[in-house]
Inverse folding.
């Protein structure tokens, strides 16, 4: 169970508008960017919760705060009742996170990559290796397991990174745009794996799934939180969101909710 | 904490050792370069010495000067006839000694007191040839002096008038100090070896990890960040030390490859010296590894980190220059500067001096301070590096 309660994050950035300045040696002025502005999210166990939003909506920043990489300026983050800000390590041990960046070690095999993380999660080498085999079965990547990840395709890399994130069998799974760059078959495989993990047989995991692809949300998510401008603008099942926006197509509903634009029903 | 350290250390070492191609490219200059240079220099020194011992004069037209020939032969010099195209050969470094050119009417002009000309032909770009110029010049001057002395004596003037001042040269340098001009490069090569050994691993485990996007997921493991940094540093420092060990051992057989007896006698580098060298380098490897990581963690890409590390490498490799420019002086602040301190101490080992406790302790402390500061910086920067 993951709960974000009114979290906010503000960044200080330097403006890149050097062209406007007459003096190229003067440092650009500071500018604050409110990346996340009082965002709340409730992700219960045994459900796939979609985090849907346009680019720059604050999804990745929110997930980074959840992962303890950034401290939130305000708000609380709870993972299975643990305060993730005060006890980041305890919270991380209960989460498997596939973030925006998911680089592998190219000179290590897929198995070694997975086992390394298993051991960092406190597993012993044998248990981690056994778990790598199990995940390879689930993600259909057994043939890859003992190859170096150097020449892996995008999909192969994504699968390895996902297996690595799940090695310690976490109760909470957080995925940031996991289908980026995957082909149809790989996407379908991932979808099936996530459905399995959600089911009681798969451990009834709490899954948070961030994306900007409508189709995935429609097919996979039990509940959806729509994020725009760093805040939650709508929340509910796909059907509830359709009803709320008064649309028949989910894409239109999303545009209406996220951008506040007039619905263009039936406009292809 | 210790367990995480061991896990990270094991992974980083395995990762680095799998990069065989990089390792090989790094080992060749680090390990072979120094001994090779030493051999080349020893050969050069030997051939120069051989040339000096030869007591031969290469000349053109010596038949025009029986008096000069007589003088040279009395000095037990052998006279060789120079090849016709000696100028060409000197320029192309095929002829390695200067040539004495005697004019056709030398003997007559000498008898008439007309100050005949003698030419010593050399090429200053041809180092071996120009080394012989001084000897030849002295020889010819000796001849001129003898002739002048004789002429004065005939007129009843004491020869001492020609030389109102008596000049004696005294060289105070000990044999070992002279040798250190040549062996002085060895500590430098070894310090470079430590740097190069640590370099790739230091960059790969920091900036490389950022560039690949593997630092962010790594930090999402429930482990103290300092343990991660410590494990990475351990691998980097071990690699630096391993290359240092190899570089040190490389000089032990190199000693037998030195053909020059003088140099061999002056250059003592046995297992005992190698061990002392190594002990001096350990704190340096520890400190420099952390320094390289600290420079690299701020860089987003490997390339950027390389530019940063070039600064460190230049700084450390220039540090011994301070000592080379001021031979003999060893102020205490030398020991506070990483690189310079180790260089100074290694030179003392080469000169056969006993190491003093205070300087050694200072360099060790310097290495440890550098290490702690570097690692603290890396641990602090890692999270913000990911967040940017």
């Amino acid at each position: 169970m993951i709960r974000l309660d009114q979290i906010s994050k503000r960044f200080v950035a330097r403006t890149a508008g050097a062209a406007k300045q007459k003096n190229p040696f003067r440092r650009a002025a500071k500018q604050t960017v409110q990346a996340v502005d009082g965002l709340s999210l409730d992700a219960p166990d045994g459900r796939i919760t979609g985090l849907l939003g346009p680019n720059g909506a604050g999804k990745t920043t929110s997930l980074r705060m959840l992962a303890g990489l950034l401290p939130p300026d305000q708000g609380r983050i709870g993972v299975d009742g643990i305060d993730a800000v005060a006890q980041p390590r305890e919270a991380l041990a209960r989460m498997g996170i596939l973030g925006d960046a998911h680089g592998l070690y190219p000179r290590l095999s897929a198995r070694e990559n997975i086992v390394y993380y298993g051991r960092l999660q406190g597993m012993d080498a044998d248990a981690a290796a056994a778990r790598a085999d199990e995940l390879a079965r689930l993600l259909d990547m057994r043939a890859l397991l003992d190859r170096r990840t150097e020449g892996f395709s995008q999909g192969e890399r994504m699968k390895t990174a996902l297996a690595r994130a799940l090695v310690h069998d976490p109760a909470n799974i957080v995925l940031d745009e996991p289908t980026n760059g995957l082909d149809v078959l790989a996407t379908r495989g991932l979808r099936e794996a996530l459905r399995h993990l959600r089911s009681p047989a798969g451990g009834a995991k709490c899954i948070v799934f961030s994306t900007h692809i409508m189709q995935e949300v429609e097919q996979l998510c039990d509940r959806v939180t729509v994020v725009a401008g760093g805040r939650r603008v709508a929340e509910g099942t796909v059907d509830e969101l359709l009803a709320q926006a008064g649309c028949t197509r989910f894409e239109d509903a999303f545009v209406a909710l996220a951008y506040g634009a007039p619905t263009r029903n039936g406009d292809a | 904490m210790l367990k995480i350290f061991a896990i990270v250390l094991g992974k980083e070492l395995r990762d680095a050792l799998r990069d065989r191609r990089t390792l090989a490219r790094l080992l060749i200059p680090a390990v072979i370069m120094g001994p090779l240079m030493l051999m080349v220099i020893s050969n050069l020194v030997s051939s120069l010495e051989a040339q000096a011992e030869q007591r031969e004069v290469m000349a053109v037209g010596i038949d025009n000067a029986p008096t000069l020939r007589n003088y040279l032969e009395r000095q037990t010099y052998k006279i060789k006839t120079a090849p016709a195209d000696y100028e060409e050969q000197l320029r192309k470094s095929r002829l390695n000694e200067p040539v004495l050119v005697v004019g056709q009417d030398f003997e007559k002009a000498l008898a008439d007191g007309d100050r005949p000309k003698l030419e010593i032909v050399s090429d200053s770009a041809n180092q071996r040839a120009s080394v012989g110029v001084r000897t030849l010049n002295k020889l010819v001057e000796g001849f001129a002096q003898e002739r002048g002395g004789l002429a004065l004596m005939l007129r009843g003037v004491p020869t001492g008038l020609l030389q109102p001042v008596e000049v004696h040269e005294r060289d105070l340098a000990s044999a070992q100090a002279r040798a250190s001009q040549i062996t002085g490069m060895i500590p430098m090569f070894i310090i470079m070896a430590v740097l190069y050994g640590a370099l790739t691993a230091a960059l790969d485990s920091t900036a490389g990890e950022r560039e690949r996007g593997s630092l962010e997921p790594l930090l999402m493991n429930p482990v103290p960040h300092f343990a991660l940094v410590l494990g990475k540093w351990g691998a980097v420092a071990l690699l630096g030390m391993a290359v240092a060990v190899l570089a040190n051992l490389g000089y032990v057989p190199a000693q037998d490859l030195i053909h020059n007896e003088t140099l061999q006698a002056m250059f003592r580098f046995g297992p005992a010296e190698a061990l002392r060298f190594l002990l001096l380098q350990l704190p340096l490897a520890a400190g420099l590894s952390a320094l390289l990581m600290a420079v690299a963690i701020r860089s987003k890409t490997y390339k950027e980190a390389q530019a940063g590390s070039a600064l460190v490498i230049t700084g450390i490799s220039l540090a011994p220059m301070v000592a080379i420019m001021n031979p003999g002086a060893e102020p205490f602040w030398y020991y506070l500067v990483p690189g310079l301190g180790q260089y100074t101490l290694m030179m003392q080992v080469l000169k056969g001096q006993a190491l003093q406790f205070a300087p050694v302790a200072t360099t060790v402390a310097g290495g440890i301070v550098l290490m702690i500061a570097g690692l603290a910086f890396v641990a602090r920067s890692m999270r913000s590096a990911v967040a940017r």
About this structure: The domain at 57-170 of chain B is CATH 3.40.1710 (abc type-2 transporter like fold). Chain B touches chain A at residues 4, 7-8, 11, 14-15, 18-19, 209, 212-224, 383, 386-387 (CB under 8 Å). Chain B has a mean pLDDT of 86.
